[in-house]
Design brief:
Chain lengths: 659, 154
């Protein structure tokens, strides 16, 4: 009964989505405030209904209702509760349900928190958001039915893929989807603005908070996914340029470009056309990612052709929305007048270059991901585009951003003095060079690592040099009012500094991978093995019974200079139902670096095959991403930039005008 | 035929969980071994999704790793080994696609896009410059007016 209620709620949500398409849109045309006002209750109720359906599916998983195909195929009665709940989105149908849940959540958030947005723009945008929900709810109901019953329910389920039985499953997909789907709000607002045809600096202000929210979640989602891969795969790789990863990186790159171009549009009314285009692009790439992951096209064009229903449906959604938005864009773009003028050497000019580089880097990932599919469809030849391609194309296009970002931050709007900014940055750049020499002297090793580490130091220092420059502006008596200026700095300035520094932190972590130590060897119990600065020793062997697996554990200790600094237990899990083994790497964080050990089954003579690593500073890769996300959150918390409070916030007169 | 072989290999990979590079595969000569690692990192495990044979747990990957090392021991060059595998499996085995007529667009388009975008921005900024030429200086009359206004405020 509960399950049927869920199914019914889903169908009802679809009906509301259809009304949400028509009524507000009609109201906007007819200048009927009451019709436009239906948007809010429609969006909120629709979210409530999808949430109900989602809860019903979760309930079926929690109580192991094996009369549902979805539960039989992906669950087991002995599966731990956390994976019964998170396992809901660990399969196609459930993950589409999560997608729909977050999509309608976005619609509801848009309807609830957008009082400052002009009613007609909001009505049109909510109507577009309704189109999106309707399309995805239809997709679920027609091709991916999560509530299908089974005629003769089995006693036990097939269990969830053991690789997914990890806390990462509980965290990574929701974060990623909040990011992916969060861009739908920006997309709808852009489409709504294009329909209405009135696009000014205020538009950038409307999309900014939503862009930031989506970007923060996407940043966290990607970082979490990368860390999950890192500790699961048994050898410590964290980024593989896999199409599925690329699918999440694409909207991130477009979203990052959007954040920067929207700031130009907001402050100077320039780059309007470009900002609208990026707003469309970011979500279009999210849709593309969903298509790639959900249609099966990645495995091969042929496997896609063998069961094309789902793939064709999502492809239809893709073409409809991207095509529709671009068509609107084509109609309206010529009527948009350019705003504020600026010289090439200016904050705006550098942000344009930032956007060009980010877009080109995004294109490199896009082409690398899709080219093999296109080529196979075209002339049947199969090629692989792997990490070496992306390192050679994405790398050179992204690297200049790292050098230019700090410089751009020091430039004034409209027209700036490049030489002056370069002079102010001179000390920081020098520090970066000294750091390079220092790293070379201390670590030696690959030139790439040394150079990247130097650039990372430069990025981190420069991010705060910008704050310094604003607290002690040139031409003002040094200490006068410095504290007042520091206190008066808008949160968004701190946010930008922190996010840019985070980029440097991640880069330093990446650079340090070049100094890692790897030891793949057969280890004997109680013998010492030197890995980097640490001595590792397997002290004893154990076995344990988990709820749905058997675990072979190796107890190990880490010592430095004869003193034990940590103990840890890498293990191997064997899952009964699916007859699959997973490796639980033993990881210990020491001074921002990590000791990483993965073991295989015990050999008859008592030894183990082990992969042991010392990965210096590796945790910085993800700490940097956290800093970026925190920077985005600080920016979001900035009162001035929140919609609706802009006029109320006032700056003390003695402070320099914000940015 | 190759498809069937791949399918069989994929099944075999599922049945017998092997592991990424294992201690018993490592060559005693560190120089040869480091070459083997570099080559392995550029070869695709054909039955996996986008994994190199160095990282893959599939048994096919293990076979290929062994093959690479045997050929190295036989004194073959890196290029020889890659060509040998390309003859056998096609370009599909290379993680770095070779620059050929049908991959030229792949390699060049990101940079072409950058160049074209850069060109447009450059042209635009030149147009802007002419538009943004400094406004004509104030006439004497206007200067007087401005001065009067400023003085009134002060």
């Amino acid at each position: 009964m509960i399950v049927e209620t869920g199914h019914f709620a889903l169908a009802l949500a679809l009906a509301l989505a259809l009304m949400q398409i028509i009524l507000p849109f009609w109201g906007a045309r007819a200048h009927d405030g009451r019709l436009m006002a239906t948007a809010r209750p429609l969006a909120l109720t629709q979210f409530a209904l999808v949430a109900l359906a989602y809860a019903a599916l979760t309930y079926a998983h929690v109580v192991s209702d094996f009369s549902l195909v979805n539960v039989v195929e992906n669950s087991h009665s002995t599966k731990p509760m956390i994976y019964k709940i998170s396992g809901v989105w660990g399969n196609h149908e459930g993950s589409m349900m999560l997608w729909a849940l977050i999509l309608t959540l976005c619609g509801a958030a848009m309807a609830a928190f957008s009082r400052a947005i002009p009613p007609r723009l909001l009505a049109d945008s909510i109507s577009v958001q309704g189109c999106l929900s309707a399309a995805f709810l239809l997709f679920i109901l027609l091709t991916s039915e999560p509530f299908a019953r089974i005629a003769t329910p089995p006693i036990e389920g097939n269990d969830l893929n053991p690789i997914l039985q990890d806390p990462g499953l509980a965290i990574h997909p929701p974060l990623l989807y909040l990011g992916y789907v969060g861009f739908s709000i920006v997309f709808s607002l852009a489409a709504g603005a294009l329909i209405g045809g009135r696009i000014d600096a205020a538009f950038a202000r409307f999309i900014r908070p939503w862009t930031l929210v989506a970007w923060v979640f996407l940043t966290l989602g990607i970082a979490m996914g990368s860390y999950w891969a890192y500790y699961t795969l048994g050898w410590g790789g964290f980024w593989f340029w896999d199409p599925v990863e690329n699918a999440s990186l694409l909207p991130w790159l477009a979203g990052t470009a959007l954040l920067h171009s929207a700031s130009v549009m907001e402050k100077r009314e320039a780059l309007k056309i470009w900002t609208i285009f990026l707003a469309i692009l970011a979500f279009s790439l999210s849709l593309l990612g969903t298509f790639l992951v959900r249609s099966g096209v990645l495995t091969s064009v042929h496997s896609f052709a063998s069961d094309p229903t789902r793939g064709m449906f999502i492809l239809g959604i893709l073409v409809l929305f991207i095509g529709g938005a671009l068509f609107l864009f084509m109609l309206r773009a010529p009527t948009l007048t350019g705003g504020g003028l600026f010289a090439p050497i200016s904050r705006e000019g550098f942000l344009v270059v930032n956007n060009l580089l980010l877009t080109a880097a995004c294109a490199a990932v896009f082409i690398g991901t899709l080219y093999p599919l296109a080529l196979e469809a075209w002339n049947g030849s199969k090629i692989t585009v792997g990490a070496p391609f992306f390192n050679l194309t994405f790398g050179p296009l992204f690297a200049p951003i790292l050098i230019l970002a700090p410089l751009g931050q020091l430039l004034a709007w409209k027209r700036a003095d490049l030489l002056g900014a370069a002079q102010r940055l001179f000390l920081v750049a020098a520090l970066g060079l000294v750091a390079m020499l220092g790293f070379y002297a201390l670590q030696g090793g690959p030139v790439v690592s040394v150079v990247c580490a130097g650039v990372a130091i430069y990025l981190m220092t420069a991010a705060f040099a910008e704050i310094w420059g604003r607290v002690f502006p040139q031409g003002v008596r040094r200490s006068a009012n410095a504290l007042a200026r520091l206190a008066g700095l808008p949160l968004s300035a701190w946010g930008a500094a922190l996010a840019h520094a985070g980029l440097g932190v991640t880069l330093l972590g990446l650079a340090a991978t070049g100094w890692g130590v790897e030891k793949i060897t057969r280890i004997q119990p109680n013998e010492l093995y030197q890995v980097g600065p640490y001595a590792l020793q397997a002290t004893s062997v154990d076995s344990a019974e988990g709820p749905n697996y058997r675990e072979a554990i190796v107890h190990m200790t880490i010592a430095r200079d004869g003193k034990t600094v940590a103990t840890f237990d890498p293990s191997k899990r064997f899952f009964r139902t699916r007859q699959m083994a997973t490796s639980q790497a033993g990881i210990v964080t020491l001074n921002l670096g990590q000791i990483y050990v993965a073991v295989a089954e015990q050999n008859p003579d008592g030894s183990f095959d082990a992969r042991m690593y010392w990965k210096p500073l590796v945790s910085l890769i993800w700490l940097g991403a956290l800093a970026m996300a925190l920077g985005g959150t600080l920016s979001l918390a900035d009162r001035r930039l929140r919609v609706g409070v802009a006029r109320r916030a006032k700056l003390p007169a003695n402070l320099q005008a914000a940015e | 035929m190759r498809k069937t072989l791949l399918a069989v290999a994929a099944l075999a990979a599922l049945a017998l969980p092997a592991h990424a590079l294992q201690p018993d595969e490592i060559l005693p000569d560190p120089k040869l071994e480091s070459r083997a690692r570099n080559i392995s990192a550029e070869l695709r495990c054909l039955v996996c999704q986008n994994q190199s044979i160095d990282d893959s747990d599939a048994s096919l990957a293990r076979d290929l790793r062994t093959l690479v090392r045997e050929q190295l021991k036989a004194g073959k060059s890196d290029q020889d080994i890659k060509s040998f595998l390309v003859d056998r499996y096609g370009n599909f085995v290379l993680l770095k696609p070779p620059f050929e007529w049908d991959t030229a667009a792949l390699w060049l388009s990101p940079f072409a896009l950058f160049a074209v975008g850069g060109f447009f921005i450059w042209r635009n900024s030149r147009n802007r410059k002419t538009e943004a030429a400094p406004a004509a200086p104030l006439s004497d009359e206007e200067s007087e007016k401005l001065k009067a206004l400023l003085n009134r405020d002060a």
